[in-house]
TrEMBL record:
Gene3D superfamilies reported in the protein's UniProt record: 3.30.230.10, P-loop containing nucleotide triphosphate hydrolases (3.40.50.300)
GO cellular component assignments: cytosol
Molecular function terms from GO: ATP binding; ATP-dependent DNA damage sensor activity; damaged DNA binding; hydrolase activity; zinc ion binding
InterPro entries in alphabetical order: AAA+_ATPase, DNA_repair_RadA, P-loop_NTPase, RecA_ATP-bd, Ribosomal_Su5_D2-typ_SF, Ribsml_uS5_D2-typ_fold_subgr, Rubredoxin_2
Single biological process term from Gene Ontology: recombinational repair
Protein name (Swiss-Prot/TrEMBL): Unannotated protein
UniProt keywords, alphabetically: ATP-binding, DNA damage, DNA repair, DNA-binding, Hydrolase, Metal-binding, Nucleotide-binding, Stress response, Zinc, Zinc-finger
Domain RecA family profile stretches: 68-219
Length: 471
């Protein structure tokens, strides 16, 4: 008889190892690897290899009737937008975010507005982290005082299900999944076994009752969901709530959605009385000044399917030490270094031996290659000391050769720039003909001047024509 092998498994992500280690090789968590009883090698396959007769036969796609999805709005327009237009019966949503970013505040507002709807349903908010009194203080502060919003504090799964059976709510909010545990399963609350089991049970209950359910999950510093990755596969929709503690801006992003787009993003602003919807995020990421200043350029970035304007600022000064400093905020550092080199070669001006600082406005995080041209123009504007006019916007990806490459969603970008009143738009060569006529029409019937540039040298040559006229 073969000797039984001993293996070890991480309780957070399920990674296995033939020997014990103090740190998981997959999720890098410390102290989560424990011994796992393994079957003997000679046991062979335990599952049967013969099939059983299915209860429902496989059918052609043409025979399956298309089912129209019915949605119910929560009353919070931006939240409805990010999930695809409203809640679907039985939909399970996982909302992840770092502690303190505002998840509980957002969901209290969603629950209050949903309970205030025309049908006046009951909403059950269950917290495993705070007491009812603590939740009540926050709810009153943001005005979530609906009589149909029921609050409960509970950590046991069976008792939570008892609340659902007693009140028969139209929607359930659970804050958070890592604090709920089942007494029928071994393991600590928040462990891999408990989180997977609790999520599976709640998902079955939500779908059997056709009741939307929103589950809160904590996330790591890398904005990934804490706990087992299987948690994302057990729910219908995964949302991440991101924000910088130093700013009031909060981004709600969809990264998985079975009932809508998985690339939508909406913005909220943290205020004393809760979270406020930001209907036009472009206003947050650009400066409004009376007189243009050198070293600035505006571009259009895509956050999911939404075009947003963002301003790039550059400062180039004489170096005070043999090693010039580089400071980058809101942009990828290595890409900015590449764009500095390309700009130096195309402009034939010395930049690498100077201190260079590049940043975005309002804490915007720009990873869209379409922002490259704006970065290069802001650097050239800072070196030349020549301010660009306030109605100029630049869109395009810059290659190492200096060529300006086309970018996706150009029509949406141009339309957004036109809507906000920009009169001169730089786009990659060969893309102007593909723009719809409506993208070049303004409200007054006079569209913006769209100029094609094929190389960075061409764009820099236009800089003197795009410069602001001294007042």
């Amino acid at each position: 008889m073969a000797k039984a092998r001993t293996s070890y498994r991480c309780s957070e992500c399920g990674w296995t190892s033939p020997k014990w280690v103090g740190r998981c090789g997959e999720c890098q968590a410390w102290g989560t690897v424990a011994e796992l009883a393994a079957a003997a090698a000679s046991a062979g396959l335990r599952s049967r290899t013969s099939g059983v007769e299915p209860t429902r036969r496989a059918r052609p796609v043409s025979e399956i009737a298309e089912e129209k999805i019915t949605r119910s709005t929560t009353g919070l327009g931006e939240f409805d937008r990010v999930i695809g237009g409203g809640l679907v019966p039985g939909q399970v949503i996982l909302l992840a975010g770092e502690p303190g970013v505002g998840k509980s505040t957002l969901l209290l507002d969603v629950g209050h507005r949903y309970a205030q709807g025309s049908s006046a349903p009951t909403v059950l908010y269950v917290s495993g982290e705070e007491s009812v009194e603590q939740i009540g203080v926050r709810a009153r502060r943001i005005g979530a005082d609906s009589e149909r919003l029921l609050l409960a504090d509970e950590n046991d799964l069976a008792t939570l299900l008892g609340h659902i059976e007693m009140h028969d709510p139209a929607m359930v909010i659970i804050d958070s999944i890592q604090t709920i545990a089942s007494s029928d399963i071994e393991g600590r609350a928040g462990g891999m076994t408990q989180v997977v089991e609790v999520t599976q049970v709640l998902s079955r209950v939500a779908k059997s009752r056709r009741m939307p359910m929103i589950i809160v999950g904590q996330s790591t510093k890398e904005s990934s969901i804490a706990g087992p990755r299987a948690l994302e596969h057990l729910v219908d929709t995964v949302l991440t709530f991101e924000g910088d503690r130093r700013t009031s801006l909060r981004l709600l992003r969809a990264i998985k959605n079975r009932y809508g787009p998985a690339d939508e993003i909406v913005c909220f602003e943290q205020a004393d009385d809760g979270l406020r919807e930001v209907l036009d995020p472009s206003e947050l990421f650009r400066e409004h000044r009376d007189k243009p200043v050198p070293g600035t350029c505006v571009t259009v970035t895509m956050e999911g399917r939404r075009p947003m304007l963002a301003e790039v600022q550059a400062l180039v000064t004489e170096a005070t030490n043999p090693n010039p400093r580089r400071g980058v905020s809101g942009l990828d550092t290595s890409r900015v270094a590449m764009l500095v080199a390309v700009t130096e070669r195309s402009s034939k001006r010395s930049i690498s031996n100077r201190d260079v600082f590049v940043a975005t406005v309002g804490g915007a995080k720009l990873s869209d290659p379409a922002c490259d041209l704006a970065v290069c123009l802001s650097l050239a504007s800072a070196v030349l000391g020549r301010a660009m006019a306030s109605d100029v916007i630049a869109i395009g990806e810059v290659a190492l050769s200096g060529d300006i490459r086309p970018v996706p969603f150009l029509a949406q970008r141009v339309a957004e720039a036109t809507r906000l009143g920009y009169g001169r738009i730089l786009v990659p060569r060969g893309t102007k003909a593909a723009l719809p006529k409506t993208a070049e029409a303004s409200r007054l019937g006079e569209g913006p001047k769209i100029s094609e540039v094929g190389h960075l040298e061409d764009a820099l040559g236009l800089l003197r024509h795009l410069a602001a006229v001294p007042g």
